[in-house]
Design a protein that fits this description.
This protein is of the alpha+beta class. About 35% of the residues lie in helices and about 25% in strands. It has 3 domains: about 120 residues, Beta-Lactamase (2-Layer Sandwich), CATH 3.30.450; about 100 residues, 2-Layer Sandwich (Phosphorylase Kinase, domain 1); about 190 residues, Transferase(Phosphotransferase), domain 1 (Orthogonal Bundle), CATH 1.10.510. The strands form 3 sheets. A 6-stranded antiparallel beta sheet has the order 3-2-1-6-5-4, sandwiched between helices. A 6-stranded antiparallel beta sheet has the order 7-8-9-10-12-11.
Length: about 425
């Protein structure tokens, strides 16, 4: 009994067992994270597709030690302020796989493990999807559009008859970066676990026969925030309403250690006219697009340079405060009709993010209250340390502005 109990409390043994069990059970992912609503326990969850294979509760101290063991094996820095990733080769019996280990600091330490079996790396000739093609349980209905990261199709579930949006990693990214497929799907899985009313729901994941990953998400009937702003700057009260919802979504994600890294008006969908509901999309996927800033071809950074933080331009990993910078640029754009920095030359635009003074936002709807202007300026500071300490602090500032708006009417709060 004593020996069995010691194994149960041995972090190294638990880490090894979790890796082996994931490969033997042909799991797609393993999550080691705090149990909801308690700080005293962690839980290890094995998933295949959207099915939970098993959950194992362990003490919080042991859970953190298990993550530390995985960090040691994958040569990852536990003290890093941002997510870090490494790869472990795992062999158990006659089965073997590579396990991608991602550490997410967040409010509490978390580890996501993604199992990459040999079949995931089989690559055949790349081909565009067309109407009628079958992708897993889904039938392609029509092409919807293409962005910097992926191609989106409207699909119908074969059994349920419900329509969804299916996004496939772009052929150009897949062909140029051998790790793009793993990161694309890993981040999609992570985003799917951040359930929030203002984040698009992700339902399913998989691979095309050519090796490209895809994920299936809710099909939303709305317009991008970029399209809405293109018709003219928005009233300040509407801007604050939209920003509060976006900050709530990002705060929930940051609590789980997930960074969006590409907050832009094109990545926000607006639903409804009277009761505005916004949805943040492409969650956690845009670090791939951001890497395109180091390439000669500007095709890979469309939609990103106008909002990217100075630290990302310097080659540093995105953090929670990088998302603040993106929000500040979006807020500026909603009020002024364009982002804070505009330039036809990509290099000049990047230099403005790094060196140019923060411009004063001007709205055609009249002078802005100091607190709103100060919030934008704080978000757009060049160094992360000068921004809000976290997303919840920014959210608190927005909620205070909204309360004053409701109480006085926005033109009366210019001195508040």
């Amino acid at each position: 009994m004593a020996g069995r109990e010691s194994h149960r409390n041995d972090p190294a043994r638990i880490a090894d067992l979790a890796l082996a069990a994931a490969v033997r059970a042909q799991a797609d992912a393993v999550y080691i994270e705090p149990m909801p609503l308690t700080e005293e326990s962690y839980v290890i969850t094995l998933e295949r597709g959207r099915e939970v294979l098993i959950t194992v509760p362990i003490e919080a101290q042991i859970g953190a030690a298990v993550i530390a063991r995985l960090a040691f094996l994958a040569d990852l820095d536990l003290a890093a302020a941002h997510s870090t990733t490494g790869v472990l080769p795992v062999k158990t019996g006659d089965r073997e796989a590579e396990v991608v280990v991602t550490l997410r600091p967040g409010a509490a330490l978390r580890a996501d493990l993604m199992v990459m079996r040999p079949r995931d790396h089989v690559v055949t000739k790349l081909a565009a999807l067309t109407a009628g093609d079958k992708v897993g349980q889904y039938r392609v209905v029509e092409f919807l559009g293409e962005g910097g990261m992926g191609t989106v199709y409207k699909v119908e579930h074969a059994a349920l008859g419900r329509t969804y949006a299916l996004k496939v990693l772009r052929e150009t990214l897949f062909g140029r970066d051998p790790t793009a497929a793993e990161r694309f799907l890993r981040e999609a899985r992570t985003a799917a676990r951040v359930h929030h009313p203002n984040i698009v729901d992700v339902f399913d994941f998989g691979y095309l026969p050519d090796g490209r990953p895809y994920f299936v998400m809710e099909l939303l009937d709305g317009e991008s925030l970029a399209a809405r702003v293109a018709r003219g700057p928005l009233p300040p009260a509407e801007v604050v309403t939209i920003m509060r919802q976006l900050a709530q979504a990002l705060a929930a994600a940051h609590d789980r250690g997930v960074i969006h890294a590409d907050v832009t008006s094109s990545n926000v969908l607006v639903l409804g006219d009277t009761e505005l509901l916004v949805k943040l999309v492409d969650f956690g996927l845009a670090e791939l697009a951001g890497e395109g800033l180091h390439e000669e071809n500007p095709e890979f950074v469309l939609g990103t340079p106008a909002y990217i933080s100075p630290e990302q331009l310097r080659g540093l990993a995105a953090t929670e405060r990088s998302d603040q910078y993106g929000l500040g640029a979006v807020m500026f754009e909603m009020l002024a009709g364009q982002p804070p920095y505009v330039d036809d030359d990509l290099r000049s635009l990047c230099m403005k993010h790094l060196q140019a003074p923060i411009p004063e936002v001007e709205s055609p709807h009249g002078p802005l209250p100091p607190k709103l202007a100060d919030t934008i300026t704080t978000c757009l500071q060049k160094t992360p340390q000068q921004r809000f300490p976290n997303m919840r602090a920014l959210l608190a500032a927005l909620e205070e502005i909204e309360r004053v708006t409701d109480r006085r009417g926005w033109r009366r709060w210019l001195s508040s």
